[in-house]
């Protein structure tokens, strides 16, 4: 099995000097495992499992927080924990379909520079956010803002790998949502970017329990924010075929 250093080099994580694996490899901005939203469960991560994930196909993610400089103290720490929970959950949601989460990098846009994009009120504003900002690497740009009005998140279906294109990013949610809500929306919107549409089109909710328990059911159709996160094998194939997906390390 490849060494941890070899895996880090493979996904483009700096290995010189002292490194926190929970920050550098797992992508937790606070450098520790986030608390579970369900207090009866203890969140756990496995270095061996992560290495195995990265030996298979995987994607890199740029988490871009917008306007978070308006928060301080415990409010900011709770926001960071919410982001970390989204990273923790997307790994667990995508793993059954043999798609790992590789390099996770964190970026920020200050309120002063956000041009009002920290509070999103329309699809046009969401599109403007990822058109105005991007990270010039091979990761998916997923923005998390302070608030969204009228919807929960937005993404092009089968986003592009061309960072100069209009469909080069997604809006993963707003930070004031509870952890289960934000994490489901985050994974749902990344699913859209990787080529998945809603499993019920743009109309009514699925009529079956299995359909309502799918990740690509809209949140209003989901039976449970925590448990309605299933992906089909066909969806897994479609996701792994996206241009952003990397071969195993």
Outline:
With 249 residues, this protein is α/β, with parallel strands linked by helices. It is built from 8 helices and 6 strands.
Explained architecture:
The protein is of the alpha/beta class and 249 residues long. It is 32% helix and 14% strand. The protein has 8 helices and 6 strands. It has helices at 4-11, 21-24, 47-54, 73-94, 123-132, 179-193, 209-212, 233-240; strands at residues 58-66, 100-109, 119-120, 140-145, 147-148, 169-174. The chain has a 4-stranded parallel sheet with strand order 2-1-4-6, sandwiched between helices. The longest helix has 22 residues, at 73-94. The chain is globular.
Radius of gyration: 17 Å
Shape verdict: globular
Helix content: 25-40%
Structural category: alpha/beta
Distance between the termini: 10 Å
Name the quaternary structure.
single chain
Name the poorly predicted regions.
none
Element string (H = helix, E = strand): HHHEHEEHEEEHHH
Q: Which strand order spans the largest sheet, edge to edge or round the barrel?
A: 2-1-4-6
Tally of strands: 6
The chain-level mean pLDDT equals 95
What's the total helix number?
Answer: 8
**Could you describe the largest sheet, including whether it forms a barrel?**
4 strands, parallel
Strand content: 5-15%
SSE layout:
Layout: H1 4-11, H2 21-24, H3 47-54, E1 58-66, H4 73-94, E2 100-109, E3 119-120, H5 123-132, E4 140-145, E5 147-148, E6 169-174, H6 179-193, H7 209-212, H8 233-240
Parallel strand pairs: 1-2, 1-4, 3-5, 4-6
